[in-house]
Known about the structure:
The complex is a heterodimer of chains A (112) and B (897). Chain A is an alpha+beta fold and 112 residues long. Chain A has four helices and five strands, in the order βαβαβαββα. Chain A has a single domain (5-107), classed as Arc Repressor Mutant, subunit A, CATH 1.10.10. In chain A, the strands form two sheets. In chain A, strands 2-5-4 form a three-stranded antiparallel sheet. A two-stranded parallel sheet of chain A has the order 1-3. The longest helix of chain A has 26 residues, at 82-107. Chain B has four domains: 2-95, no CATH class; 135-345, no CATH class; 355-532 and 764-896, no CATH class; 549-751, no CATH class. In chain B, α5 (97-126) runs antiparallel to α11. The two termini of chain B are 34 Å apart. Chains A and B meet through α2, α3 and β5 of A and α2 and α4 of B.
Amino acid sequence: xxxxxxxxxxxxxxxxxxxxxxxxxxxxxxxxxxxxxxxxxxxxxxxxxxxxxxxxxxxxxxxxxxxxxxxxxxxxxxxxxxxxxxxxxxxxxxxxxxxxxxxxxxxxxxxx
Amino acid sequence: xxxxxxxxxxxxxxxxxxxxxxxxxxxxxxxxxxxxxxxxxxxxxxxxxxxxxxxxxxxxxxxxxxxxxxxxxxxxxxxxxxxxxxxxxxxxxxxxxxxxxxxxxxxxxxxxxxxxxxxxxxxxxxxxxxxxxxxxxxxxxxxxxxxxxxxxxxxxxxxxxxxxxxxxxxxxxxxxxxxxxxxxxxxxxxxxxxxxxxxxxxxxxxxxxxxxxxxxxxxxxxxxxxxxxxxxxxxxxxxxxxxxxxxxxxxxxxxxxxxxxxxxxxxxxxxxxxxxxxxxxxxxxxxxxxxxxxxxxxxxxxxxxxxxxxxxxxxxxxxxxxxxxxxxxxxxxxxxxxxxxxxxxxxxxxxxxxxxxxxxxxxxxxxxxxxxxxxxxxxxxxxxxxxxxxxxxxxxxxxxxxxxxxxxxxxxxxxxxxxxxxxxxxxxxxxxxxxxxxxxxxxxxxxxxxxxxxxxxxxxxxxxxxxxxxxxxxxxxxxxxxxxxxxxxxxxxxxxxxxxxxxxxxxxxxxxxxxxxxxxxxxxxxxxxxxxxxxxxxxxxxxxxxxxxxxxxxxxxxxxxxxxxxxxxxxxxxxxxxxxxxxxxxxxxxxxxxxxxxxxxxxxxxxxxxxxxxxxxxxxxxxxxxxxxxxxxxxxxxxxxxxxxxxxxxxxxxxxxxxxxxxxxxxxxxxxxxxxxxxxxxxxxxxxxxxxxxxxxxxxxxxxxxxxxxxxxxxxxxxxxxxxxxxxxxxxxxxxxxxxxxxxxxxxxxxxxxxxxxxxxxxxxxxxxxxxxxxxxxxxxxxxxxxxxxxxxxxxxxxxxxxxxxxxxxxxxxxxxxxxxxxxxxxxxxxxxxxxxxxxxxxxxxxxxxxxxxxxxxxxxxxxxxxxxxxxxxxxxxxxxxxxxxxxxxxxxxxxx
Lengths: 112, 897
């Protein structure tokens, strides 16, 4: 298995939005969700996640609300706003296009 | 709403603790997760901290990120608030479109009127003359008395002022015909000296300006500088215009240059042509010397000076005064006691304003009053509405909406209406500006469109101020001492006394302002009527004058007689022309043919004889044509109009009374000119004629001393000869036919000047006509606004007192009792307004008095009449809601209480 890849600044935002499609989550749950799906291929710095959350909140893509977890701890839950959902759709489409383009180029024969 | 407000309250304290809680939670979750996977608690804690990042670095970064987030959210919130307010304001407009339309219209008229007057005042008073270098150093010389200077005086001033100031002169502007046939037109022309353009510091747009060599005596050069306007109009801005020929009258001149766009010397009236002064001799009507303008007696020159940088203008005036007096003594001319005043070329610094500027300033003040009325009306309506919404506002406040937000929302309502009004005001100002240009500034300079950047900026500023005023006043009246529980508890019906008072005082203000405006309107209307009532001795409305280009008239008298005989019969056949006469020196033609006179048996040094008289040489039909009555004796007959016949004369009443105070002028005789001339028998006395209703005939002592002689016995001053016609149809219909008739007689003639006598008197009437019209329009507008305001106030108060009315009716009050109860309320408010207006008008009276004619600015009759009208309108406006009150059904009202 290759070394875990650092998540580039800005790319984290779209991942956070994706995580929240599963429902409102607090910060740790988002980390957990992402790490499970990355299968150890992504290396997240936790503070960067909160930077991303605040950034998204400032753009009104996510909205926080204080709540209580199953273990009865007070935590801040984030949920997607309508604007956040639209942003995710747009960003995902952009990513897919980008990835497809890169893949096409990489798959092309060197002297074709 | 509430959570945001609460959150905002704790905003400063929040992010840091918030973040710390969030971090702490995160790390505890991480430790739990690791421990559940078999880590020791200590190792898990270390790992969790490592995964989070260096707290010393990360925490401040997160706090900063959170702060940035809050700033952004704040901005969003404010933006949302404005959007919400705007949406609510738009909803208010949809809900009450009549109210909105009325308010917008009031703003549009108020702001539009102000913008119009601003654009006029801006052009007349605030802008320096265009293209003049350092206009602050340029002054017009005014000689008191007399204004203009003679050529020798100019030469003396030029030589002796050098160093302190450079001086130049101009003759005119005068209207000269240019072109031929169809292209013939009148050009406003000034004759200038060679240093003129240098003194003003003006460069040519194309070609060159006039230089010293163009204006050297005796003949100078036959060259011309044309205006940018003329260049565009007649030559389509063709750059090859320089070197082309222009026919002025019948003199051919070469165009040497085009003046820059908008240059009009230092005045505001348009000038089309600048010619060398040396051309004045051949181009100006005169039977006299070769350079009529250059003699010591001819005070024809307007002088301007550019004061040297280190010199005080006052020193120049003092020096010029002494030079002028010395020159006058040397040449024994009139200016021996004259004084020189310098008038700045900057209109704002000028000591005396042009009549147009005075009127414009006055109208500016009037339009400001209208804006005030419009604002107070809008404020009034907004306030009434805000009071109706008191309960809703109370509930919003109880829910935690801040006062600031409430004020902002009231302000947004007003601002939206004001902005819509501002947009409509652009249309009003465009229309008003065009009207002003045509009415007030007839023939004055107005470059570019009516609406320019400065006017737009003014409209924006005025609309914002109006919106602020209209929005903030109700907000403060409403929120001052706002009693939350009462506002919610008492329901929709009743209103606070102090708010009612605020609305009433606005109505009083409106009544007062409209009364002041209407008083102004009536004063100006009466002045206009008084001016028009002054007998001028001439039927101004029906007398048409045809003056020919004087070049055509430089024909020998015999040829002129034949030409005029032809013209006379041609014009007489035009439909709508009743009588035709030929005359030299008719009123308003600017010809004064003065003569010496003597009377046998009267001492030659008697004042009446010393001052001489003016000759009018006329054909026999003259008096019936022009409408001057013969008060004694008879008019001329065809038999008189023979050179061989007896020498006869008719004199004006003023002259007759001066020479023969016994009242028996007819049959006496007067000798005109040299003593060798025969003594003329006086056959009649004609009523006095005047060229001004305002100025007494005192400009020159002998202004009213007129002696009429038969045309054939006159001096044959052909240049002064005109054809006059009495019209029985509308001048606009007849004038083209008269022109055509003249063209048929003499196809090759330059443009003949055909004018109605009244047109030469109109400029004198214009200030009053304008004042009466504008005050009238604004005053009527103000009265309508005030009536609307009163209507809504009374209506509001009736709605508030429905219960009380019901009880009154139940207790036996009749409709008439209710009507007079409510009607009296309106009358009282109006009466207070009128009282205030009367005091105000009396205080302002000295400002207006100089603009009035034969009526006191404190005329009791005028005040009483206007007061009566306002009271009647006020009662009428309050009777409509009063009638509604009288129809109240007592049972339903009392039940609903």
